[in-house]
Task: inverse folding
């Protein structure tokens, strides 16, 4: 379970997150919705310990990660996967090497086993036969799939996805959203997704949180948000 | 006045950050957290791929030194000392400094551009999210490779530079080949070689440190990569030239 308590963050005096409190249950898919620049990605980066809050705490199960050193955070992140908005694949490695990277770093699997695991996961994400290609040879959607494969190759217990559908056409957006949902269910992992893609967010989320000007203004199941009479929520979800 | 104060404060802050970065790198190296495969890859990319440019410039430099030496010393009837001039100039001073400057412009710029591009594309952040220390994985191998590649390149540069001087000495100044080689061997003593060679290790640290630091903290997209790469090369040049003046004085004082 992820528990965020009274989290606040400002950059150069500009408040980005203000008194955020949120609980994410084990195995749940939570989508954080909000307009661009409302602090969705900043919140996600706090959850994986890439940013330290000005105030507040974040607990992963019983561990307060805001007090961990970078060394301990590195250890903790072995159980987490993070899908970057643009994929952030290593451009000097091919697809196979990119996906195998966490396995080579954190496991003692032999070459054959690593190869089998990478090829298996390529099958799962529907990208068989691209293992020798470099990121520059892939489309935006393919890059995100490969990045997702890299994020979950260690059977992560927590998966963070930052704007997974941005820059993709509606069909690719739906595909990657479904893939995230399927993978999340298969691995029973807690998944936090930031997005402003309303349609796909409602398709995959167990719960949705709506951020406005650094504060959570709505939190609930998709149906609850749909039934909301709040003007901003109604306007935002259309 | 306020601008000067801000500039001074900025310089102090930047220097502090750069020193902490160097301490972090050295901490990894002294703890033995060095990835050998990555180091070898970097030695190839930085060192072996720089051999041609270093050799070419050294050949030309050695030849020019010999030409100028022949023209100047010929006036005093001392053209047979051209070999001394070429060998001592290259080994004591020009070889290490020229090689460091060329290495900085080629390998140093490459390091900054690579790390900078990775940084602006979130690849450095991605290594952290995968539980891997980016300093250990990306910076330490590049720094160690600088330390290994630059001394070897300097030796190549000095040998090729002397060969350039030899060609001019034999073909242009009509100095007998055997005589030229004998003069060269007699001219260069251990102290001459090591007084120049010692500097190379300082230059390697400067180039590795400046290039990695600028790359690792690049921001501002593709424009930023260009800006920080230029900064890295300019700073490396300045620090090499300035430190060379200090090191030369120190070496001459204690070593002669």
Result:
């Amino acid at each position: 379970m992820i528990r965020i308590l009274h989290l606040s963050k400002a950059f150069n005096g500009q408040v980005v997150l203000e008194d955020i409190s949120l609980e994410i249950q084990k195995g749940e898919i939570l989508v954080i919705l909000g307009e661009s620049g409302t602090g969705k990605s900043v919140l996600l980066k706090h959850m994986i310990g890439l940013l330290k809050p000005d105030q507040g705490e974040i607990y992963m199960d019983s561990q307060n990660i805001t007090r961990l050193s970078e060394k301990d955070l590195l250890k903790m992140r072995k159980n987490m996967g993070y899908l970057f908005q643009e994929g952030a694949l290593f451009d000097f490695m091919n697809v196979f090497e990119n996906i195998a990277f966490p396995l080579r770093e954190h496991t003692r699997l032999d070459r054959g086993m690593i190869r089998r695991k990478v090829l298996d996961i390529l099958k799962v994400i529907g990208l068989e036969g691209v293992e020798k290609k470099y990121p520059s040879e892939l489309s935006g959607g393919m890059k995100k799939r490969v990045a997702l494969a890299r994020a979950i190759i260690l059977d992560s217990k927590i998966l963070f996805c930052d704007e997974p559908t941005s820059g993709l056409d509606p069909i690719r957006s739906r595909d990657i959203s479904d893939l995230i949902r399927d993978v999340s269910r298969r691995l029973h992992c807690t998944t936090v997704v930031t997005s402003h893609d309303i349609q796909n967010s409602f398709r995959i989320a167990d719960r949705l949180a709506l951020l406005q000007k650094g504060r959570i203004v709505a939190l609930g199941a998709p149906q609850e948000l749909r039934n909301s009479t709040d003007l901003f929520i109604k306007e935002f979800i259309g | 006045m306020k601008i000067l104060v801000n500039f001074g404060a900025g310089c102090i802050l930047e220097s502090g950050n750069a020193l902490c970065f160097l301490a972090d790198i050295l901490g990894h190296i002294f703890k033995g957290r060095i990835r050998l495969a990555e180091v070898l890859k970097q030695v190839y990319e930085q060192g072996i791929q720089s051999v041609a440019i270093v050799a070419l410039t050294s050949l030309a430099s050695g030849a020019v030194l010999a030409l100028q030496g022949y023209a100047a010393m010929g006036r005093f009837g001392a053209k047979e000392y051209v070999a001394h001039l070429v060998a001592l100039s290259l080994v004591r001073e020009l070889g290490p400094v020229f090689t460091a400057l060329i290495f900085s412009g080629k390998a140093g710029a490459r390091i900054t551009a690579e790390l900078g591009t990775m940084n602006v594309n979130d690849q450095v952040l991605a290594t952290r999210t995968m539980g891997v220390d980016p300093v250990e994985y990306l910076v330490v191998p590049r720094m160690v490779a600088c330390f290994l590649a630059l001394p070897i390149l300097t030796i190549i540069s000095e040998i090729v530079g002397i060969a350039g001087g030899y060609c001019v000495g034999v073909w242009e100044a009509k100095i007998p080949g055997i005589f030229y080689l004998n003069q060269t061997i007699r001219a260069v003593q251990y102290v001459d070689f090591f007084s120049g060679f010692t500097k190379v290790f300082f230059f390697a640290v400067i180039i590795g440190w400046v290039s990695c630091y600028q790359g690792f903290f690049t921001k501002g997209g593709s424009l930023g990569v260009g800006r920080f790469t230029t900064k890295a090369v300019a700073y490396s040049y300045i620090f090499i030239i300035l430190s060379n003046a200090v090191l030369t004085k120190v070496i001459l004082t204690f070593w002669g």
Residues 158 and 169 of chain A are 27 Å apart (CA to CA). Chain A touches chain B at residues 48, 50, 70, 74-78, 80-82, 84-86, 88-92, 101-102, 105-106, 150 (CB under 8 Å). Strands of chain A lie at 2-11, 14-24, 29-34, 55-60, 63-64, 80-83, 158-162, 190-195, 207-212, 215-220. Residues 170-187 of chain A form the longest helix (18 residues).
